Amino acid sequence: MTLDLRRRGSVEEDMVFFAMPYEDKELPNGRVENFDDLYEGHFEDWIRNWGLRAERADKVPGTTESAMDVA
Using CA atoms, how far apart are residues 24 and 60, in angstroms rounded to an integer? Predict the structure, then answer.
């Protein structure tokens, strides 16, 4: 797989990019963590409190591209 790292479009100064798993994932210690809950219940709130905004690539309406393509 080859990633095109050239910038396209404008930079959104208040946007925070998250590269993290989604849904339930098993951690190295065997515990299962729900990353959707972490994002929606903690990270998203923290970002908003700092006056910034977070957007998950898999939540962009009408997106049929992969999350990496949207990011």
Answer: 20
Q: 58 with 67: CB under 8 angstroms?
A: yes
Say which DSSP state 51 is in: T
What b/e readout covers 18-39, taking b as 16+ CB neighbours within 10 angstroms? Answer: eeeeeeeeeeeeeeeeeeeeeb
pLDDT at residue 1 in the model: 67
Which residue type sits at 8? R
Mean pLDDT, the chain cut into blocks of 10 residues (71 residues total): 70 79 90 90 90 79 60 56
- List alpha helices for 1-71, DSSP H: 35-38, 44-49, 67-70
β-bridge mates for residue 33, sequence order: 25
